[in-house]
Amino acid sequence: MKAVILAGGSGTRLYPTTKVINKHFLPIYNKPMIYYPLSLVMLLGIRDVLFIVNPQDLEDFKNLFSDGSHLGMRIDYKIQEKPNGLAEGLILAEDYLKGDKVLYLLGDNIFFGHDLVKILKDAMLEVETKGGAYVFGYYVKDPERFGIVEFDENGKVLSIEEKPKKPKSHYAVVGAYFFDENASQIARNVKPSDRGELEITSVLEEYLKREALKVKLLGRGFAWFDAGTHDSFLEAGEFVATIEKRTGLMIGCIEEIAYRNRWITKEELLELAKPLSKTDYGRYLEAIAEENP
């Protein structure tokens, strides 16, 4: 399985800051926002990642991640000329995927919770072995702002609706999707919505028609942030700061994950820490390297 992270867009909800910088480079506490979805990919053991980015941001992404070899990964990039909806990312990634199954992530979504990785791995295995699509629902107070999933008492998906005026549930579909090899083809057949966008909800509706869509609810003990607004951006930063200060462990530290995955050596980790040695982040990496593996 490969991963695709959608990191384009204009970030208008975070204006005026994002008039001069891509929102995915803004710091969620002590690291760029984009580190968090990438770290989730790495925790699942996926080493092939495609970033979909704006033309003007390509060099900045390359400066940040290069080709991923320093993390033991293979990172590629695809330009999105202008944002035309979330489903467009699956179309742009078609040649990259070459028929592979995919974890599709939104670059401004942040997840945290006990057993999160196990839940995602179970969903990944389900799609790898049986095909279809797998999404995750999270309770929200304002369902009118999100894509909403309706399901019965057995967890069977009944409907998916984008920003409904009369929501059928309070469970939003979060920005992490597992798709089989049909996703790009399905996305190609999506018609623009009334908003003029290719909605990811339309892709999910097609999987639902094929009876190939599953949902897992993320309940108590899970945190999800759509960090594309000022309030949620601030909340995400405060949440990460609190967890890290309480536990002494970092969330979304990509170098640490690469090391613990044994994708890089202790010496390579220390080399990555060297330019950061005067920062808490660098000292954290040095401490990780000195631990017994």
Automatic annotation (TrEMBL):
**What InterPro entries does the record point to?**
G1P_thy_trans_s, NTP_transferase_dom, Nucleotide-diphossugar_trans
Q: Which UniProt keywords apply?
A: Magnesium, Metal-binding, Nucleotidyltransferase, Transferase
What SUPFAM superfamilies does the record tag this protein with? Nucleotide-diphospho-sugar transferases
Please give the start and end residues of each transmembrane region: none
The cross-references to NCBIfam families, in alphabetical order and at most eight, read: rmlA
Question: EC number(s)?
Answer: 2.7.7.24
User: Which reaction is catalysed here?
Assistant: dTTP + alpha-D-glucose 1-phosphate + H(+) = dTDP-alpha-D-glucose + diphosphate
Task: List required co-factors.
Answer: Mg(2+)
* UniProt cross-references to Gene3D superfamilies, sorted A to Z: Spore Coat Polysaccharide Biosynthesis Protein SpsA, Chain A
Sorted alphabetically, which Pfam families does this protein's record hold?
A: NTP_transferase (PF00483)
Q: What is this protein called?
A: Glucose-1-phosphate thymidylyltransferase
Nucleotidyl transferase domain residues are 2-241
Describe the family membership recorded for this protein in Swiss-Prot or TrEMBL: Belongs to the glucose-1-phosphate thymidylyltransferase family.
Q: What does this protein do?
A: Catalyzes the formation of dTDP-glucose, from dTTP and glucose 1-phosphate, as well as its pyrophosphorolysis.
UniProt entry tagged with the keyword GTP-binding = no
Q: Which PANTHER family match?
A: GLUCOSE-1-PHOSPHATE THYMIDYLYLTRANSFERASE, GLUCOSE-1-PHOSPHATE THYMIDYLYLTRANSFERASE 1
The entry lists its GO molecular-function terms as: glucose-1-phosphate thymidylyltransferase activity; metal ion binding
